[in-house]
Design goal:
Layout: E1 2-7, H1 12-24, E2 28-31, H2 43-54, E3 60-65, H3 69-75, E4 83-85, H4 89-97, E5 103-107, H5 113-125, H6 132-138
Parallel strand pairs: 1-2, 1-3, 3-5, 4-5
Helix pairs in contact: 1-5, 2-3, 4-5
Length: about 140
């Protein structure tokens, strides 16, 4: 499976650790993030990840910035994207189980790298429950 990942300057170390982890598990990673710590504009790194998910080029994306708010807001502008902010095990599980999130947004300033790797693992291995949640997820997109 291929996963797309993006980050701004706050998430460079996290992205590198997550990418190494995913590749060790056999995943292919599309890296759209910065590899430097110089200040950058997060939307430039979010849009390619969200486009991959929206266009079904990948099933899942991972985005990392300081608070995860900016990347989540940006990603959620794309059709078929459900980006959720994940900072604990429980929130991550619910984001997948109840919301069928397809992009995991990690707040680097509020998690440790090892915790972020655990979050990614939980995100990728938690199934959407469907059922009563499906009708709610179906109501998320706005028809134009």
């Amino acid at each position: 499976m291929t996963i797309s990942i993006g980050n701004d300057h706050a998430g460079t170390e996290y992205k590198q650790a997550i990418q190494t982890y995913l590749e060790s598990k056999g995943f292919t990673v599309n890296n759209y993030g910065t590899n430097a710590n110089d200040s950058v504009d997060y939307p430039d790194f979010v849009h390619p990840v969200a486009a991959d998910v929206s266009e079904s080029k990948v099933k899942f994306g991972i985005l990392i910035c300081g608070s995860a708010n900016g990347v989540a807001m940006t990603a959620n502008k794309h059709q078929k994207v459900r980006a959720g902010i994940c900072w604990t095990k429980e929130i991550t599980e619910l984001t997948r189980q109840h919301n069928n999130a397809n992009i995991c947004c990690i707040p680097a300033r509020f998690t440790a790298i090892q915790q972020a790797i655990q979050i990614v693992d939980i995100f990728l291995n938690t199934e959407f429950e469907g059922g009563r949640h499906q009708k709610r997820v179906d109501k998320i997109p706005i028809s134009c």
